[in-house]
Design brief:
- The protein is of the alpha+beta class.
- The chain folds into 2 domains: 2-144, no CATH class; 159-217, no CATH class.
- It has helices at residues 26-30, 50-58, 132-140, 143-155, 166-190, 196-205, 213-218, and strands at 2-8, 13-20, 40-42, 62-66, 73-79, 87-95, 107-113, 120-125.
- Strand 3, helix 2 (50-58) and strand 4 form a beta-alpha-beta unit.
């Protein structure tokens, strides 16, 4: 099985989520997205589809992804870059491979070298207005989707299932997502600095205590225990 998620960068909340069998390709779920005009979609090379790129461009949707190493293209224009920011190139390209006809538009290729790891990246986008360094930062933000799945697996116990039927598996996953959204909403309304993992641990430790959630998150003192009724026995 696969869990396909569209993570909204504004708040890092799932805006789109669907569950399919393990044979369903990632791009199949991506094509089902109904995104508003002006959106910026960030994805890895597993979503490479020239026809989809062209479709999003026609709909006024921007995308940022990584260019495959075996992609064939022609450099149409070169622009100067700030090498101090790790940029190595900023080019306008035209795809020339066997499937290039599915994406006849000109695209933008941005080269970037990570100063810490020395790894070189080639980003592909249809956005020509944002700075090249901004495009690189946008793709870097894609790591949040990896952190989302890591958080789900580590904290919501998806590694084992209570049942093996399709309905049982999907029910447990949807419950886990509901827990994630509740925690995210709780963090938003409380405006606390703790991470969602810290909030979850705190709630687990106080699961059977009747506490005000805001006071619990900001470190307020626990409520005093309710007075116990005292009874006296009289013998005659």
């Amino acid at each position: 099985m696969k869990l396909h998620v569209g993570l909204d960068h504004d708040g890092l909340l799932p805006a789109f989520l669907t569950i399919s069998d393990g044979k369903t390709h990632d791009i199949t779920a991506a094509r089902a997205l109904q995104l508003p005009k002006g959106s910026i979609v960030v994805m890895d090379r597993g979503y490479t589809d020239y026809a989809w790129y062209n479709q999003m461009n026609n709909q006024g949707i921007f995308f940022v992804t990584r260019l495959r190493k075996n992609a064939r293209y022609l450099v149409v224009e070169r622009r100067n870059v700030l090498k101090s920011k790790g940029l190595t190139s900023d080019q306008t390209i035209q795809l020339t491979g066997t499937k290039a006809g599915k994406c006849p538009i000109r695209l933008r290729r941005i080269g970037f070298k990570d100063a810490e790891t020395g790894i070189q990246y080639a980003f592909l986008t249809n956005n020509f207005k944002l700075a090249a360094s901004t495009i690189a930062e946008i793709y870097k933000a894609r790591w949040q989707i990896e952190l989302f799945f890591k958080w789900i697996k580590q904290n919501l116990k998806i590694k084992s299932f209570l049942g093996t039927s399709r309905n049982a598996v999907m029910t447990q996953i949807w419950v886990a997502i509901c827990v994630y959204l509740l925690l995210a909403y709780l963090k938003f309304v409380s405006q606390v600095s703790q991470s969602m993992q810290q909030i979850l641990r705190l709630l687990q430790l106080n699961l059977f205590d009747r506490r005000d959630l805001r006071e619990l998150l900001i470190g307020g003192p626990p409520e005093p225990p309710a007075p116990q009724l005292q009874t006296s026995l009289r013998f005659s």
